[in-house]
Design brief:
Order of helices and strands: HHHHHHHHH
Largest sheet: none
Structural class: mainly alpha
Number of domains: 2
Distance between the termini: 61 Å
Number of strands: 0
Number of helices: 9
Length: about 160
């Protein structure tokens, strides 16, 4: 006899709850979420707990507290969580773009020509030196100092 009448619910992956997401936020990000102070304190408490089982129980407790919030409060919290998540995704995409650009610069001198055309005020001599050093570092299996400096330079261009 099947006790579960709604089999689609069993297969559906709902992902982490709002309480779990809030508990996993950094303290700085948590400050930006519109929460009652008592709930914010309870969420901060999660960061102090070390035992896995205790953390799991505490997150269940947070879920219970969250169920007492009205729809308007939950909507405001969800809106902020979406914004935090979106910023993270956008920032990650930007970092991947810069990493690819750096790798392309090291592989192909034509990429440097394109970059110079887009940024004529760029310190070309410094960038050429960094690219040459990055190639040498890779060839000699040295620490990637110049490789990292190229990334920082690209990041400073605000591409």
């Amino acid at each position: 006899m099947n006790m579960n009448t709604d089999e689609s619910y069993e297969d559906e992956d709902l992902g982490p709850s709002k309480a779990e997401i809030l508990a996993d936020l950094s303290l700085d990000a948590l400050k930006t979420v519109p929460l009652e102070e008592s709930l914010r304190d309870a969420i901060r408490e999660t960061h102090r707990i070390k035992s896995f089982g205790a953390i799991k129980r505490h997150k269940q407790y947070l879920g219970k507290l969250m169920r007492n919030l009205d729809e308007e409060q939950l909507a405001a919290i969800q809106l902020r969580l979406d914004a935090i998540s979106g910023v993270s995704k956008a920032e990650t995409a930007k970092m991947h773009h810069l990493e690819k650009m750096r790798d392309d610069l090291i592989k192909d001198d034509a990429e440097l020509t394109k970059l110079i055309a887009s940024y004529p005020d760029l310190d070309i001599q410094n960038l050429r030196t960094l690219i040459r050093n990055a190639r040498k570092e890779r060839e000699l299996n040295k620490p990637p100092k110049a490789y990292r400096e190229i990334f920082q330079l690209l990041k400073s261009l605000d591409l």
